[in-house]
């Protein structure tokens, strides 16, 4: 009976068996449960012995870095999926040994050409301490990543000296404007080539704009309430609630003034964004591109206009506009470093090709996503007489550095591991860096290339596990 119920559970089978053998349905269901449990216990999968073909260190490292697994997560996954019994101590030992190999690999990194580096801190759970990271702007290669240390000029100076000892030549740096980074660059005499990240300024301007827009919405809601109350009083209806402090005409004037300030700040922010682009066309008969001096003059005008808006807004919003103006003034000298580097080349190519040619190249480069999307493809549509000079100009525009997004991308890679382990050792950071440097992009402009290949390294065509000395076949 139990076999029939388990093998052929058709409709009406239990009722038929109950009538045939004079057994209650409850008893049959109980026998079925006992038989099912006995079969499951008899057929349960036993823990398999460790297969010699499996490489335990590679399994551990893949689970650690690919799946963001904790030590206990690695232990349970190996037990359930591979039948491998392994202690937490063994897992820790495997990761420690791999971390030491990764640190040795990081110490041997070299660059044949001068590199532009993005610098930034990623703050940890320890108060006043952060991970210090140095990433290649153009390739995304991780040159240095340091466990939590005190954020000051001494810590950053040691990191930069460490890179100099490796033979890495720095052609320029970019950061979000941290004071510790600036002091360290002064000590190693590299401040002149330091670029301030423009996206942080854009983000600050967007925050201020959002607060202004919310203030306008608040005043608009207050105006609608006053209008409704005024209409009710005019109709002789009974009104509820406190009488508003402002009259309808006063609130309308305040609403118009706040809207004017918000729209003005939005317009000035858009102009700031335009002036900090790599290429800023100016359709003129003699000059087609704004140089760094003209850009600085235009931005100074924007700051003066921002200051004029301060008395027109409410007390709560005055501080926001003043703060935005102050931050832009402080960042302005270092924000236009990329433009100063382009000035001489733009003048040289302008003399060789003429104003109309420069205007056409600027127009095409600004629309390279549609026409290109790379400068190499743009060159195919340019007259052959222009190509030599145009190649230099287009390459300079492509290589212009305004942002430190490369190091922000690295932070997004480190952050999930910080959430799992809370604190990352030097070995763990080195493991992440080695994997990132060998990671091949699956899409985008760099599809099929790793950061090492984009840097031009000769040892970039191997798997990251093979680079650390593990089995190439297993990797």
Which outline best applies? extended
Q: What is the number of helices?
A: 21
Q: Which CATH class of the largest domain? A: Alpha Beta
Oligomer state of the chains in this structure: single chain
CATH architecture of the largest domain: 2-Layer Sandwich
Task: Give the terminus-to-terminus CA distance.
Answer: 53 Å
Question: What is the H/E string?
Answer: HHHHHHEEEHEHEHHHHHHHHHHHHH
List keywords for this structure.
475 residues, alpha/beta, Nucleotidyltransferase, domain 5, 4 domains, 5-stranded mixed beta sheet, 21 helices, 5 strands, extended
Describe the structure.
The chain contains 21 helices and five strands. The protein is α/β, with parallel strands linked by helices and 475 residues long. The protein has a five-stranded mixed beta sheet, sandwiched between helices. β1 (115-123) and β2 form a beta hairpin. The chain is extended. The model is unreliable at 47-53 (pLDDT under 50).
What topology does this entry show?
Blueprint: H1 2-7, H2 13-21, H3 25-42, H4 56-66, H5 71-82, H6 88-107, E1 115-123, E2 129-136, E3 142-150, H7 153-165, E4 170-175, H8 179-187, E5 194-196, H9 198-234, H10 248-275, H11 292-309, H12 315-335, H13 337-353, H14 355-366, H15 368-371, H16 375-379, H17 387-399, H18 405-421, H19 426-438, H20 451-455, H21 464-467
Parallel strand pairs: 1-4, 4-5
Antiparallel strand pairs: 1-2, 2-3
């Amino acid at each position: 009976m139990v076999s029939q119920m388990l093998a052929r559970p058709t409709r009406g089978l239990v009722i038929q068996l109950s009538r045939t053998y004079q057994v209650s349905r409850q008893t049959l269901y109980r026998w079925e449960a006992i038989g099912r449990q006995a079969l499951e216990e008899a057929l349960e999968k036993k823990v398999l012995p460790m297969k010699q073909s499996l490489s335990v260190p590679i399994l551990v490292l893949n689970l650690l870095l690919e799946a963001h697994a904790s030590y206990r997560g690695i232990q349970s996954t190996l037990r359930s999926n591979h039948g491998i019994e392994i202690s937490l101590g063994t897992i820790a030992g495997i990761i420690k040994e791999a971390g030491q190999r990764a640190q040795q690999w990081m110490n041997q990194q070299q660059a044949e050409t001068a590199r532009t580096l993005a610098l930034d801190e990623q703050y940890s759970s320890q108060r006043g301490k952060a991970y210090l990271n140095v990433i290649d702007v153009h390739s995304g290669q991780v040159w240095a990543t340091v466990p939590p240390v005190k954020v000051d000029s001494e810590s950053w100076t040691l990191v930069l000296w460490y890179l100099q000892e490796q033979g890495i030549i720095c052609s320029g740096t970019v950061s979000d404007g941290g004071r510790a980074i600036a002091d360290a660059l002064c000590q190693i005499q590299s401040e002149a080539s330091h670029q301030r990240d423009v996206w942080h300024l854009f983000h600050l301007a967007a925050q201020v704009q959002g607060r202004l827009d919310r203030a306008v919405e608040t005043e608009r809601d207050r105006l609608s309430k006053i209008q409704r109350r005024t209409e009710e009083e005019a109709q002789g209806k009974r009104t509820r609630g406190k009488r508003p402090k402002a009259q309808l005409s006063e609130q309308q004037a305040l609403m118009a003034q706040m809207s004017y300030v918000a729209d003005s700040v939005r317009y000035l922010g858009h102009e700031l964004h335009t002036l900090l682009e790599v290429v800023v066309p100016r359709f003129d008969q003699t000059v087609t591109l704004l140089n760094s001096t003209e850009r600085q003059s235009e931005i100074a005008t924007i700051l003066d206009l921002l200051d004029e808006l301060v008395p027109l807004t409410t007390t709560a919003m005055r501080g926001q506009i003043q703060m935005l103006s102050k931050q832009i003034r402080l960042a302005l000298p270092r924000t236009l470093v990329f433009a100063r580097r382009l000035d001489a080349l733009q003048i040289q190519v302008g003399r060789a090709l003429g104003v109309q040619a420069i205007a056409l190249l600027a127009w095409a480069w600004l629309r390279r996503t549609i026409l290109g999307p790379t400068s190499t493809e743009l060159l195919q549509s340019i007259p052959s007489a222009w190509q030599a000079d145009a190649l230099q100009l287009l390459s300079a525009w492509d290589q212009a550095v305004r942002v430190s997004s490369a190091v922000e991308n690295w932070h997004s890679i480190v952050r999930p591991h910080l959430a799992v382990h809370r604190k990352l050792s030097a070995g763990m950071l080195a493991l992440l860096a080695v994997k990132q440097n060998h990671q091949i992009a699956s899409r985008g402009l760099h599809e099929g290339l790793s950061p090492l290949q984009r840097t031009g390294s000769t040892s970039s065509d191997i798997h990251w596990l093979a680079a650390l000395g593990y089995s190439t076949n297993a990797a």
